[in-house]
Specification:
Largest sheet: none
Radius of gyration: 44 Å
Strand content: under 5%
Distance between the termini: 144 Å
Number of strands: 0
Shape: rod-shaped
Oligomer: single chain
Order of helices and strands: HH
Structural class: mainly alpha
Helix content: over 70%
Length: 106
Amino acid sequence: KDQDTLLQQLDEKTEKIHEMNQRFLKQENELHVLTMEIKTFEEKFVEQKTVSSQKEQETLSLRKQVNRMIEELSQLESVKDVTLKHNKQVRNPSQSYYHVFYCPSA
């Protein structure tokens, strides 16, 4: 009878060990899945960071181009203003500096 009880206890312990082993394997599998998800996330993060850095460089380059174009436009506007002023003086010589010296009626 004692032997039967011992065998039953052994069976119960063995079953418990089997259940614990199953839980361990399941947790180990879940850990592996989570580890792979984290690795994938990290790879995507690094990729996005690289893309973001490239976009930042492109933006900086475009900003420099725009600033250069604004400066060129400003210079062209100055030339245009001077040209318009000169053309106006040529069309209206009575206000021209040259009129004083070259027009006998002055």
